[in-house]
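Notes, p. 3: input format for complexes.
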Amino acid sequence: MLTHEDNQLLTQVGKGTPGGELMRRYWHPVAATSQLDDDPVQAVRILGEDLVLFRDRSGTLGLIAQRCPHRNMNLRFGMPEENGLRCPYHGWMFDATGVCIDTPLEPPESTFKDKITTQAYPVQELGGLVWAYLGPDPAPLLPRWDLLVKEGGFRQIVGHQLPCNWLQVMENRGDLGHAIYLHGQFFQYTLEKQGKLTDDPKARYNSAAANQESRLARGAYQRYEPRYNQFGMTKANLDSDKSEDTPTWRVGTNPILFPYHLAFGPGRRTIRQTYQLGVPIDDTHTWHIQYFCYMFPPEVGVPEQDSIPYAEVPLKDEHGEYILNNVLAQDMMAWYEQGEITDRTQEHLGVSDACVIAYRQMLRDQIKVVRDGGEPINVFRDPATIERPELALDPPEIDRVTQENVAAKQATVYRSNFHQMSKGGWLYLDDDIDRYCPDRDTVVELYRRADEMGVADVRRSF
Ligand code: FES
Ligand SMILES: [Fe+2]
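Output follows (462 residues plus FE2/S2 (inorganic) cluster):
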């Protein structure tokens, strides 16, 4: 349970709030690059600020205030020109640094424009996303995390607009226990109502539920503990009747890269590698990004991608009903059904919430670091520290252990995740958000080819 003040401290992202000032020390994704191919001018809301992202005709990206300083026209309707964005109302033009470079209705000799600037923020493209920095100068370096830059990856991005605060999304990252019920018994219940429940023991809802039944029958429960590293933390879990001398208990799995970046694995020898990012739009909205990077063996012949495709997926189906029959959709439902900004003065945390408590403390600590004039974790200024073709977590054992663990698991389940048919007649690929990937069929085809060539053994080094 938190006080009301503590809840505000941890959830607010607006300018001038302690949490908002912490967030303004990081680069944030504000759009998928491919969205600019569809329309070079995009409305962006990030950390409670309304902005306009544009690519001018020379290819330069700019992120400037939404309101034109002349008479407040919305520059979302601006027209990109060679060196900037022109307001559609009276033609004022702004370059990517926010300088007004033309006021065409003023007399030719006027120097009026020299007095005009608008708010502008630096932006950079990386890995199919446009990233922005809204904090104090000088801007830190944009970290080049592994999946964004790995050679030979086949990438695609799925996004959702969530009507809830970003911290609810983040707390889920430490909440390992939810998978047992939300992705087990609740998944079963959802499919039962749809008449699609199968008894296939390999289906994740059945295996999650069966494991829990076994735990309860043994009088056991899952234990959870945080394990800290240089970028944030991993989460360790262990059945209470099992030996602590297991690698995943010692080092944990699924790293959180502070503040809101979840890196599955990092057993980076698997084919399907993903990030999840919960980007704070404002206090009550979050842009959820699931970032896929498939690392097929080179002989499979992964096609070149001119651009990384992005699909924005609704939370409800065409009948207005919540989509609940895939894993991420279940997570999202749980996040926003806690309320816009969940009232943490009313909660009752138990032992199983240990990693949620740990993440909150980490957030509180980093807010204090910024308040005291310091630099929080994961702010990079040395170019030698931003190249992360591998995550390379400390201690190095994390990488090795999770690699072995995930590879061993994936070796048996990857087929079922992609193109094997369940007894209910649907592809296992469909039990997660992968079903919405813009290039889903290409991925299935690449798996098929890898199988055919006999090169899909995920334990191999590639
Ligand atoms: S409102 Fe933009 S030029 Fe007039
Ligand atoms: Fe989940």
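The radius of gyration is 23 Å.
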